[in-house]
UniProtKB/TrEMBL annotation:
Pfam families: PBP_like_2 (PF12849)
Domain PBP: 27-254
Signal peptide (UniProt feature, chain positions): 1-27
UniProt keyword Signal present: yes
Species assigned in the record: Methylobacterium longum
Protein name per UniProt: Substrate-binding domain-containing protein
Top-rank taxon: Bacteria
Coiled coil: none
Keyword Methyltransferase in record: no
Keywords of the record: Signal
Length: 269
């Protein structure tokens, strides 16, 4: 009898282990892949969703860019993606559908040691073009300016070109470092004395970095001109119950409140 009890105990432990592994696999069911713009905001929404959800856990992994989201969802490798640029007509023709969530201001930020809190739009353009090379020229420290840029297809750069005075045809200096993701740009500026970069605004930027006012307007001021729109994308052919449930939550009043708390302007679908 004791032997049978031991055997049953081991079988029960094995069943529990298998059950735990199954639950662990189910806990990673739905990843929302894509842009780094607004990633902290969407992670907060996912955390709130996961606290109330049943079997499916939503994750917001590190950036693979808006193009990566389009490729992953369009290629039916993922069910949901996140983008910070509008879908093209060709992408819509592939069956992709976008759900705008929030307007996120584009921020220009610098290493804390540069001693500058604001620039004119003309000064910002001159710095990123390489015409101004030292922070002392704009009232800052006697320190070489180190420009951190993004690739030409970056969503924040596209918004700056379309809205920031002097940026439409701006040729960015060749003496710059190209960051491949938003997080890369932030970390490079944070770690490099004299550095300046740009990306989507988030309250998390304030701390080790200084977020600049442009022409007297901070990023969240109504007169600040540049912003990106963060949207979720999916294909009707692969949208399942879990994806539908998270889409409904992400566009709910509760999610809009979470997004607004983190510096964005929520959009009603």
């Amino acid at each position: 009898m004791a032997s049978a009890f031991v055997c049953l105990r081991h079988i029960s432990a094995g069943v529990l282990a298998v059950f735990a592994l199954t639950c662990s696999a189910r806990a990673e069911d739905l990843a929302v892949v894509g842009t780094g713009d607004g990633i902290e905001m969407l992670q907060a929404v996912a955390t709130a969703y996961n606290a109330d959800a049943g079997g499916v856990r939503v994750s917001v992994p590190p950036s693979i860019g808006s193009g990566g989201a389009v490729a992953a969802v369009g290629g039916e490798r993922q069910k949901l993606g996140r983008i910070a640029r509008p879908l093209t007509e060709a992408e819509k023709g592939q069956g992709l559908i976008e759900v705008p969530l929030i307007r996120i201001p584009s921020a220009i930020f610098v290493h804390r040691d540069v001693g500058v809190a604001s620039l004119t739009s003309a000064q910002a353009a001159a710095i990123f073009s390489g015409t101004i090379e030292n922070w002392s020229a704009v009232g800052g420290a006697d320190l070489k300016i180190r420009v951190v840029r993004r690739e030409d297809t970056d969503s924040t750069l596209a918004v700056l070109r379309s809205s920031m005075p002097g940026w439409r045809d701006l040729v960015l200096t060749s003496r710059s470092k190209t960051a491949t993701t938003t997080q890369d740009a932030i970390e490079t500026v944070r770690q490099t004395p004299g550095a300046i970069g740009f990306g989507p605004f988030s309250p998390a930027l304030v701390g080790d970095l200084a977020v600049l006012s442009i022409d007297g307007n901070a990023p969240r001021d109504p007169a600040y001109p540049s912003a990106v729109t963060l949207a979720l994308i999916y294909k009707a052919a692969t949208r399942d119950a879990a994806a539908s449930d998270f889409l409904a939550f992400a566009t709910s009043d509760r999610a809009r409140h979470l997004l607004a708390e983190r510096g964005g302007a929520p959009l009603k679908p």
